[in-house]
Amino acid sequence: MSVQVIESMVEWIENNITENPTLTELSGYIGYSPYYCSAKFHETVGITMKQYIAKRKLSLAAIEVKNTKYRFLDIALKYGFSSQEAFTRAFVKAYNCTPFQYRKGPTVIKLYLKPLHLPVRR
Fold this sequence. Notes:
By secondary structure, this protein is mainly alpha-helical. The protein has 7 helices and no strands. It folds into 2 domains: 44 residues; 50 residues, Homeodomain-like (Arc Repressor Mutant, subunit A, Orthogonal Bundle). Helix 2 packs across helix 3 and helix 5 packs across helix 6. Keywords: DNA-binding, Transcription, Transcription regulation.
């Protein structure tokens, strides 16, 4: 599987992130088996697809927390959290502050960014 295919996988995930993309849907889009997609994604990106989606959802939600005045519940639901409480628990676990503290304060957090260039593995 080429780096371009992995980049297509990442781009597809990014474009569908609020729709709770699945490995089965991704493999159907790419045209490889779910197992092969999963293995190659993990090998190239360094984390599983599930971990990638969780990290990106939380990072995108954090950006909305900081840059918008949307309710935390609306942001939580947009990114697939079952409740505002579940979102807050995940946020605190990842960033050691609540969404409210992040929105109001000069708190700095480390977001998980979409990879710009994937390494070529041989």
